[in-house]
Amino acid sequence: MITINYQTIKREDPVKLPENLLFGRMFTDHMFDITYENGKGWINPEIKKNEEMSISPAAMVFHYGQAIFEGLKAYLWDDGRIALFRADQNIERFNKSAKRLCMPEIDPELMLEAIKAVVKTDKDWIPKKPGYSLYIRPFMVATDPYIGVRPSELYKMMIILSPVGPYYSQGFKPVPILVTEKFARAVKKGIGECKAAANYAASLMGQVEAYKEGYTQVLWLDAIEQKYIEEVGTMNIFIQFKDEVATPRLSGTILPGVTRSSVIRILKDWGYNVTERDISIVEIIERYKKGEVVEIFGTGTAAVISSVSRLKYTDFEMKFNDEEAGELGTKLYNEISGIQNGKIEDRYGWITFID
Ligand SMILES: *Cc1c(COP(=O)(O)O)cnc(C)c1O
User: Fold this and answer.
1) Which H/E stretch holds residue 140?
2) What is the pLDDT of residue 12?
3) In whole angstroms, how far apart are CA 355 and each of 113, 170, 346?
4) For ligand 1, is residue 235 a contact (CB within 6 Å)?
5) Can you say whether residue 309 is alpha, beta or left, with left for phi > 0 and alpha for psi between -120 and 50 degrees?
6) pLDDT tens digits, residue range 14-53?
7) Is 353 a member of any domain?
8) For a designed S-S bond to 309, which of 174, 182, 260, 319 qualifies (C-beta 3.0 to 4.6 A apart)?
9) pLDDT value of position 179
């Protein structure tokens, strides 16, 4: 067992959170940091001050892009306990991403311990307001100062924390989405199923184009036939048809979301006919015209559930539920955030506490 080194950091003033928390802009004052060296393994785990750091301009991450990350949240319950939601799933996915990018895996127990240690250190940063939480961002980058394409021999894994408010500050607000045909995000046998920084770089142009047209997100189609829906920017997607709730199957190009798998589990228990299959955009349009599409929603850690208000493909735009939040999406949002916040019994064993 590795022991984490806690620098003796004294916080002079009590933590004071601003009234207006902008998502992803504010960070706590500590972080977790561990180094990897070929031959030595993971060394020097420590909790230290979150401040600017120095790194070689030749560090391989800047040139060849070995960078992966994760995203999960810590929730402060009314009884004062701090809960993590399915953290084991994020850790497992982190190691899968690492493996695919020829980066070193990390002992899941050490990673969980690291997450707990840093959250515990900065627990005063978790806002004591309903809907608020502490976003946890573990990431790993190649730090080897070397110009030449090969896997790095040095890495850093760090965990930073960001206090966040409810994703939708004006209430649960449905989002308009553009289906893009101009760009592709990922192909089979590539790295689409990894939370790798490169995937987001590839997605930016589509995202910018969607913004210009007044849409907040892109729905990606498969890269080969440009026919089957895959996922949205940072969310998986579900279509509620009259007799079925369908989501694209995990084919190697989409991110296997923790929220996605939680939604599938809950819907099955509620008796819904849930399927993971290929869904073509043409099928959605044809069934929409027949009145068979009830609602569409995205799933992801940041927002939990995002109802889709409009979906545009070529010149055809579909509107759902008078652009209000859908019934099933709202029900799922209440269920999952209820479990995360301790208001609904954790019947699946999805919660672990930070002691
Ligand atoms: C993180 C992410 C998701 C959602 O995954 P969760 O584990 O539910 O947060 C979906 N798609 C992409 C591309 C993502 O990066």
Assistant:
1) strand 133-142
2) 67
3) 11, 33, 17
4) yes
5) alpha
6) 788 877 777 788 999 999 999 999 999 999 999 999 999 9
7) no
8) 174
9) 98
